[in-house]
Amino acid sequence: MQEAIRNAGRPLSPQEILEETQEEIPGLGLATVYRNVKAMVDSRWLKPVELPGSPDRYELAGQDHHHHFHCRHCDKVYDVEGCPGNLSSITPEGFVLESHEIVLYGSCPDCNTSE
Ligand SMILES: [Zn+2]
Ligand SMILES: [Zn+2]
To answer: Is 12 exposed, middle or buried (0-12, 13-18, 19+ CB in 10 A)?
Structure first.
């Protein structure tokens, strides 16, 4: 299961982890995936990617600061390198900025092919 997550190169939902792992472990169920994911989050190998209005995805912990692109068509989530940064420029006076979440929405190259 770790292998599938590492190879994906993007955050996966438990359902996607199940699909990636099913061939390798026939008979694997979603409940087992959830249990394993929870254990991997507890041991800080994985971390949840929280997306508004969508189930959590999971990615390897300890990556550099980055953001995500959520494809509205296939519902896959991709990593976005880098960050626009400098959000303190829009932080109102008197407020202290501690963190931010940025999610990009649109369609991914797979969904983008004009046929
Ligand atoms: Zn897509
Ligand atoms: Zn950022």
So the answer is: buried
